[in-house]
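B., you asked whether I could sanity-check this one before it goes into the benchmark set. Here's the sequence:
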Amino acid sequence: MKHIRHLALSVLLALSLMTSALAAEVPVSLVVENLNGQQRIVKTYELPPGTDPETLKEPSFDYDGFTYTWAYTTKEEHTFLETKNVSETVTVETGKKDLNAVLEQLAPSIPYDDGEFSGELALDHTTITTEAAGYASKSGKVTTTKTIGPLDRNDMSYIPATTVKDGKTLTLANVEWQVIGTDLVGDVLAPSSYQAVATYSASTSYQVATGYVSTAEYKGTVTASGIESITYTVVYVGTEIVPEPPQPTEPVKQGSPLSGGNAAAIGGTLLVIALLAALAGGGAWLHLHRKNVYVYVPGDQPRDYKLIAKFRVEPEKPEIQVNEDQIGSAHMLAVEIKKPLAKKLLNQIFTVNHPCGAQRYMVLRDNPSDWHEFPLDNHTEEMEEPT
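And here's what the prediction gave me:
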């Protein structure tokens, strides 16, 4: 019963760890290393701002003979700065068409903020235009005067009844006679020459502007800045697992509940067996579908690798196919064959197909896992020992 209980607890623990791993963020790189005698697993995440780093912490887990526990998390922010040129049109109203009056209504600069970009825009004086806002009709009088003469007498027949000014006909409104010459008649001076000052007028109407509207453009360069992404590095420290010595089993004594056919004990045992069978079935399904070959490319730092693909490989067909979009610009691949599969493939050839060709090598290591690194080139290479 003790062994059955331990097995059931192990299955439940494995299922809980797999569930939490499926719900977590996917790291861009995973490094297993021994740093100054300390066994560590380092997971690196590239996440958007606002992510809670507490969600990246995983409960303690076992891997390859060690129990790993979260130690610390580091954070590195990646900022961005963008610029663009913008312009805005501003409209003001003035009572007269005067540049000084328009400039009094226009500020030298205005603030700009669209929620993402912000800055100051300056007035571009070359873009100022002014137009009438509207028109109103007004009435008035047009007048003109004409001097007619010299005349021999002050006779109205000499005076025209109308005249034309700027294309408009004006009528005679008044005449003023002036003596411009005299003659001696006997002992008396008498007028001998006249001139007439005639005034003409007419009513008129015209359009005047009711006000003026001026438009101007403000131009400038605005910026947007902030945090584009955050790199979180989560470090787990491993403690070596020391297996417990096997416990001796006790023989079933005559007269015990099992030998005596205790119905309650038998029912409990059957229930545990049924639960164990269900858990074992679920564990077997997970084991059969678990990825057992991981592919990495070098990261930005020494001993840093980025996980790019996972495969499920059966021992009967020891090969994988890595696509070009998975490799990207990398010039080297690292292949990790997990311990259970490495044991089955020991001393067999494993093939890695990639866009540059195929890499074949013999699996010679099964503890802890088989790890092989090779450069990408344009020919097929076969190696006897993994690096």
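One thing to flag: Residues 6 and 244 are 12 Å apart (CA to CA). Otherwise nothing jumped out at me.
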